[in-house]
Amino acid sequence: MSLVVRARRVVLPDGERAAAVHTAGGVVTAVTGFDDVPAGAVTLADDEVLLPGLVDSHVHVNEPGRTEWEGFATATRAAAAGGVTTIVDMPLNSVPATTTVEALRVKREVAAGQIAVDVAFWGGAVPGNAGELRAMHEAGVVGFKCFLLDSGVPEFPPLDDAGLRAALAELATFDGLLIAHAEDEAVIAAAPEPAGASYAAFLTSRPPAAEETAIGRLVAATRDTGARSHVVHLADGDALPLLRAARASGVRVTVETCPHYLTFAAEDVPDGDTAYKCCPPIRESSHREALWGALTAGDVDLVVSDHSPCTPELKRLDVGDFGLAWGGIAGLQVALPAVWTGARARGVPLSQVVCWMSAAPARLAGLPGKGAIVVGRDADLVAFAPDEPFTVGRLEHRNPVTPYAGRELTGVVRRTWLRGREADGSPLGRLLDRGDR
Ligand SMILES: [Zn+2]
């Protein structure tokens, strides 16, 4: 199996240029000049750019157990349609939660044979399972997710400070990675309860201080244990100085944000439209602009979807109540155009977006075969038309609810290849372990 794709614009690690990407057996074998191609090479259209396949390290698939929310077949079809060739599945919202080696085995078995892109797994760190972490690490999970407050599902309880430190201390013995949902329980308990259709009231119920307090706890525990940690879905621009200072002082903490925090702003969220409910919440535009600035400055490392769908019933669109609705935004398939639309408007180059959404998440998840068009890595490629506008319509994920519905975005994914084969939604994906190449 060999595929050669050439384009006038190819995003390579050292910049963008005209090139031909040669592949064989699913791996990149050479990157040559545009004209140096055999007969039968694919030539992209003049308005298309060749990108490495994206890596989305924050996807909640929910299968088995809550497959009616989202499953492996539908999530990975959405990924392929959106130019995402690798997803890393979150350990919660499925049943079982991925908090034991046995649960990991169950999830891998369920995923096998129905995935349209490659899939790796996060494990979970919950109270009482510190002794299980090393075995899960050796079984191939890319790292461990924890919550610092109620996760919303009973089978995935949060870590208190002692539990957080115990998990980090254990992970430090094998340089494992802890990723944390950083909102503080006590700060949120002291805030007004969310209720009703008012988005402003929901925002007040989850203040920025909840993120700052939890991130402060995580940073302190990371510093004291010498471990590695990562803040998922940062929404709070006011937490950036604290993270910047921690990183400057040598604390090994990385940070991600999500397309919805870079696209939407609280001022524009319609009351009653619970498709926008997620935790931490979409904050005011000042936070959005601070996150863009931090990405550009290198203070935020990556952008991943936090695709977290549920059934329309659980979104409570019937009553539009932000207190009752499940929190989570479905956006895996439109992550690239959403971020690119925002980047383009701010003068950020496409190659930078590709770093945030491919190379950086591949590095976070320890997947050396992914994240760039480089000889020896997987031939995961995307033909992207960066100047073509479109309106978000029906998406491939299981439940159609998304705040992106009807939104005008710029940048269309025209074709995706997974290990040299057209990723057309058929089950070409592989299960990946940390370190696979
Ligand atoms: Zn999540």
What's this model, at a glance?
The protein has 437 residues and is α/β, with parallel strands linked by helices. It has helices at residues 72-81, 101-111, 133-138, 161-172, 185-190, 199-205, 208-225, 240-248, 259-263, 285-297, 312-315, 335-345, 350-365; strands at residues 2-12, 15-24, 27-32, 42-43, 49-52, 54-59, 84-89, 118-121, 123-124, 144-147, 177-181, 228-231, 253-257, 302-303, 381-391, 408-418, 421-422. Strands 9-10-11-12-13-14 form a six-stranded parallel β-sheet. A four-stranded mixed β-sheet has the order 3-2-1-4.
Task: Report what the structure shows.
The structure is a single chain. The mean pLDDT is 97. The protein is globular, with a radius of gyration of 21 Å. It has one domain: Metal-dependent hydrolases (TIM Barrel, Alpha-Beta Barrel), CATH 3.20.20. The strands form four sheets. The chain has a six-stranded parallel β-sheet with strand order 9-10-11-12-13-14. A four-stranded mixed β-sheet has the order 3-2-1-4. A four-stranded antiparallel β-sheet has the order 5-15-16-17, covered by helices on one side. It has helices at residues 72-81, 101-111, 133-138, 161-172, 185-190, 199-205, 208-225, 240-248, 259-263, 285-297, 312-315, 335-345, 350-365; strands at 2-12, 15-24, 27-32, 42-43, 49-52, 54-59, 84-89, 118-121, 123-124, 144-147, 177-181, 228-231, 253-257, 302-303, 381-391, 408-418, 421-422. It has 437 residues and is of the alpha/beta class. It is built from 13 helices and 17 strands. The two termini are 18 Å apart. A hairpin with a 2-residue loop joins strand 2 (15-24) and strand 3 (27-32). The structure holds zinc ion (ZN). Zinc ion is lined by residues 58, 60, 90, 306, 308. One of its GO terms (biological process) is purine nucleobase catabolic process. Pfam families: Amidohydro_1. This is allantoinase. Keywords: Hydrolase, Metal-binding, Purine metabolism, Zinc. Belongs to the metallo-dependent hydrolases superfamily. DHOase family. Class I DHOase subfamily. Belongs to the metallo-dependent hydrolases superfamily. Allantoinase family.
